[in-house]
Amino acid sequence: MIWNDHYETMERDRLKQVQSRSLRELVERVYKKVPFYRRKMDEQGVKPSDINQIIDIVKLPFTTKQEMRDVYPFKLLAVDLSDIVEIHTSSGTTGKPVVDAYTLRDIDTWSEVMARTLSMGDVTRQDIVQNAYGYGLFTGGLGVHYGARRIGANVIPISGGNTKRQLMIMQDFRSNVLTCTPSYSLYLAEAALEEGIDFSKLPLRVGFFGAEPWSEGMRKEIEAKLHLKALDIFGLTEIIGPGVAQECMCQDGLHIFEDHFYPEIIDPETERLLPEGEKGELVLTTLTKEGTPVLRYRTRDITYLNYKTCRCGRTSVRMNRILGRTDDMLIIRGVNVFPSQIEEVLLQVEGVEPHYQLLIDRKGQLDSIEIQVEMIEKLFSDEIKMLEKTEKKIENALYSSLGVHSKVKLVEPKSIPRSEGKARRVIDKRQV
Ligand code: AMP
Ligand code: ZN
After folding, report:
1. Does the pLDDT value for residue 93 go beyond 90?
2. Which of 144, 276, 300, 349 is the most buried (most CB within 10 A)?
3. E strand map for 137-253
4. Residue-number span of the structural domain to which 401 is assigned
5. pTM of the predicted protein model
6. What's CA 63's distance to the chain center, in Å?
7. Is any atom of ligand 1 closer than 6 Å to the C-beta of 90?
8. Domain count across the chain
9. Which of 214, 232, 236, 318 to mutate to test the pocket of ligand 1 (most atoms within 8 A of CB)?
10. Average pLDDT rounded to a whole number, residues 416-432
């Protein structure tokens, strides 16, 4: 179901005109109102009058996460503080967070893009949305909330955590839409099993899983265990929160809401724009945001774009699921490794669960990586020899896929900490 036919199926040439106009207005606005951007544009020797078409965006300076932290809390505001109606922050655990401040119109835009998002999973006013993303400063909870409300669905603002209550509400209220992180969805499935709750008997139909990286293998696990269709939802605080891009029922890439968020893919080293289909760093510009607009934000997320019209009828560009982050990339003995690649390999091995942690350490001059992964109950009762055999099998599979030796350790079922929000997959002891 398409929420906004006009924008979501717009002819691409027409869309470019819309984007060009929004970009001109945006640049005028930030040049006048935000000294941070004016200074950066002056340094780059670019004036608002240099920006006519959307392709002129490449003349503008990039914005990094560090810069957004440096202007904490309000130096990025392009409106008076009195025009702000709501504030969220990024979930960063070190240093100052990034502030996203919304005007009333920004909240309206957020509701619109989130209504489009949920409509990609055919959510209507008939549906009951169990929203297990955290409410609070984190954008996940309220973002989904506003979208569900715009559609007229019944939203249950249960927030993250309290797993027993989640399961009770799910059964009693007959929720048929679930929104949470992919890792938490698996935790719910596991807890349900313990409580003797059969997901195949629940009306759950579709889930919107995101806020952290996950893989196709993980999708298969989730769909099988929760008996629903698992869709990938993508967003980030710096841009708006959830509602930047969403997978449709075709499950073939995430549609970006391009009339509001303009995507580019660059080579993270040279900062050069890459052509369609090439992997690189996603850069996003908020074309219509009023409160805290962002020019060419370097997300550090790695993906590629596809401009073909989707089978669902939408013409908007699709990004591939996030392949990794430039800052999550592990360099193990000179080889670039992304946690998502490891996950993909692990989930192809029989006998292991999608609960794992990567421990990185340095012994002498050499980096070492140990992968702790939970085994299924059945394997746990096997002999040591069998376990060692499985560990070796995984080590070999990882070596042939990544080209780097790692140590695999099978651990007891349920011994790796569960998360109610974003899972912590990597423990890098080199930094401690
Ligand atoms: P935050 O602003 O704290 O919600 O974090 C945003 C970051 O979470 C993004 O830049 C991505 O790295 C990650 N993220 C969000 N959604 C997804 C997704 N669907 N797949 C992979 N990573 C995601
Ligand atoms: Zn589609």
Report:
1. no
2. 144
3. 154-156, 177-180, 206-210, 229-236, 241-247
4. 330-431
5. 0.91
6. 19
7. yes
8. 2
9. 236
10. 85
